[in-house]
Description:
The protein is mainly beta.
Amino acid sequence: MKTYAVRLTTGQDLKKELINFTKENNINAGCILTCVGCITRATLRMANASIIKDFEKNYEIVSLVGTLCKDGIHLHISLSDEKGNVIGGHLKENCLIGTTAEIIIADLDHLKFTREFDKKTGYKELHISK
């Protein structure tokens, strides 16, 4: 397993930067080990795939989890506001970093992830090979 440490700064788009990082570093099977930081704007898809919500205020990133591969990334995020209220969902583009996001990524070099269309779900789903 190879690990990477990444720091994003003010105004960077969390999802776009992780997509670019995955491609630039040729990550075939990656995952997020940890992430701390803050967001000033978030766009999340809720549990019902048709509902997308925008949030604009300061949030702490309390969790970022998911898988990374050159075919695409699948990430879920939890965010906490100044009162400790937590929101979360599927990470979409337009989630903008506040002051920082410190991210540790693992590249699982013994595996290969791809995203293949699944007729049952209607989405490109994770396919795992060695």
